[in-house]
Write a structure and sequence with these properties.
This protein is of the alpha/beta class. It is built from ten helices and nine strands. The protein is globular.
């Protein structure tokens, strides 16, 4: 959706959930010397100023990263420390920058972002990272590129879900990507809403037998998300244990 800008939601409870899990998966995948490919279908701008007008308007960061208890020695804690040291204590990393914290010279990063302003900001944020950045629709472009090299990898699927059909679209994409690139772990984020629309997504990807992790927000807004969900297909060895450990970052945020 060209109307969606993640700056309004950066650092919120859903980001703490998603990014703590992402950091944990990347730490697992980069334990060994073999290179990996990391890709995103909806990358956003990569870095967010929590003192900016967008974050101030929603207050989501105050309810999320502002209350998070990330262990400094955890993968998520290490990524946060790197960003704060580089940019300042009031900046928050999007998923591309979290990935940048873990990727090594032998690894490759491919990012898709369709929104023109977000795509331009992403280019600026990721300058020097070596990432391949595409101004294209994420599902279509990544399916055209897959399988990436190195073959071992991780794909983050993170659409806005502003359109109801995106749940089914994400499921169809995951099934097609798994068939084209079986060596890749596929991590799908989704919002948990009172309407329960994510059930369509989970039913669609059931053949992939994903690891599902959902959290409920301790203080949900009066309207919108009550929680956050992740489905990880073909996760690396130790994914369940690493995911459980990563959720301690949400102590005080998640019910």
């Amino acid at each position: 959706m060209l109307s969606y800008q993640h700056a309004y939601h950066a650092g919120g409870p859903a980001d703490v959930h998603k990014h703590a899990a992402l950091a944990a998966m990347l730490a697992l995948l980069t334990r060994k010397g073999r290179g990996i490919s990391y890709a995103e279908t909806h990358a956003g701008r990569g870095l967010y100023d929590l003192d900016g007008p967008e974050a101030a308007r929603t207050g989501e960061a105050a309810a999320g990263i502002g209350q998070a208890e990330a262990d400094p020695a955890s993968p998520y804690g290490e990524a946060l420390a790197m960003v704060r040291a580089e940019f300042g204590p009031r900046f928050y990393p999007g998923s591309p920058v979290i990935a940048w914290a873990f990727l090594r010279p032998q690894d490759r990063m491919t990012l898709m972002e369709l929104h023109p302003a977000e795509h331009a900001a992403l280019h600026e944020t990721m300058a020097g990272s070596g990432a391949s950045i595409h101004h294209r629709e994420g599902f279509e472009r990544l399916l055209a590129l897959a399988p990436l090299s190195p073959r071992r990898g991780l794909v983050l699927v993170d659409p806005s879900y502003e359109v109801k059909t995106e749940y089914a679209d994400a499921a169809r994409f995951a099934l097609r990507l798994a068939a084209k690139w079986p060596q890749a772990a596929i991590m799908i984020w989704y919002p948990v809403l009172p309407a329960g629309r994510h059930a369509e997504l989970l039913a669609g990807i059931a053949p992939l037998r994903p690891l599902v992790n959902e959290v409920t927000f301790r203080h949900p807004p009066s309207r919108g998300m009550t929680g956050s969900g992740l489905a990880i297909a073909n996760g690396p060895y130790g994914a369940r244990e690493a995911l459980d450990a990563a959720m301690t970052a949400g102590t005080g945020i998640f019910a």
